[in-house]
Amino acid sequence: MPLFSSKFSTKTIPVRRQDTSVIKNEFGSDYAAKELSLDIAPLKLKLSDFEVSFVDGHWIPASGKAGATHKENLRLKRELEQLEEENNMLRLKFEILLDMMTDKTVEAEQVELQRAQSLSNLSKKSKKQRW
Predict the structure, then answer these.
(1) How many CB atoms lie within 10 A of CB 63?
(2) Nearest-angstrom CA–CA distance, 40 and 28
(3) Number of other CB atoms surrounding residue 91 within 10 Å
(4) Who contacts 69 (Cβ-Cβ below 8 Å, separation ≥6)?
(5) CB atoms within 10 A of CB 32
(6) Which strand (E) or helix (H) includes residue 24?
(7) How confident is the model at residue 93 (pLDDT cuts 50, 70, 90)?
(8) From CA 37, how far away is CA 75, in angstroms rounded?
(9) Which member of 3, 33, 62, 93 has the lowest number of beta carbons within 10 Å of its beta carbon?
(10) In the prediction, which pLDDT does 118 show?
(11) Residue 34 CA, distance from chain mean position
(12) Which of 60, 82, 81 is nearest to 71 (CA)?
């Protein structure tokens, strides 16, 4: 035990390594790789002939029938989304055309009604002039 030194001398704290998982989660793996000069490869797991990789928080089959099926499912999902967007656009166009036809029908009926009223007024006037 030293006589003239402090009993409670502080120890130096080691420098912490920067946690890359926080940066990767908040800013994305591309930003983390660029800022920290890291080469973060996707995590791959291989069990005999079956291989899966961990990408964007999901395990994706990378080989075999499951991999081909997964790729086909992704392609079909993209195609389904595209067709749904096209269907929504066509429904919108149909609604607009239906509104336009309704407006034109109402206008045509009003013109026809005005024409019929003017003809009836003319026939009444002509009858009055005859008497």
Answers:
(1) 13
(2) 11
(3) 10
(4) 61
(5) 19
(6) helix 20-27
(7) very high
(8) 33
(9) 3
(10) 87
(11) 26
(12) 60
Alpha-carbon torsion angle 73, 75, 78, 80, nearest 10: -70
Whether residue 36 contacts residue 20, with contact meaning beta carbons closer than 8 Å, is answered with yes
Q: Which residues contact 61 (CB under 8 A, 6 or more apart)?
A: 50, 51, 52, 67, 69, 70
Would you state the structure tokens that stand for residue 122, as one six-digit string? 């003319």
Alpha carbons 66 and 63: distance in angstroms, whole number: 7
Q: Specify the residue for token string 């006589």.
A: 3
Confidence class for position 29, pLDDT limits 50, 70, 90: low
CB 46 within 8 A of CB 54: no
Q: How far apart are CA 84 and CA 90, in angstroms?
A: 10
- Global model pTM greater than 0.90: no
Tokens linked to 11: 């120890």
The residues pairing with 55 across neighbouring beta strands, listed in sequence order, are 58
Gyration radius from the chain CA atoms = 39
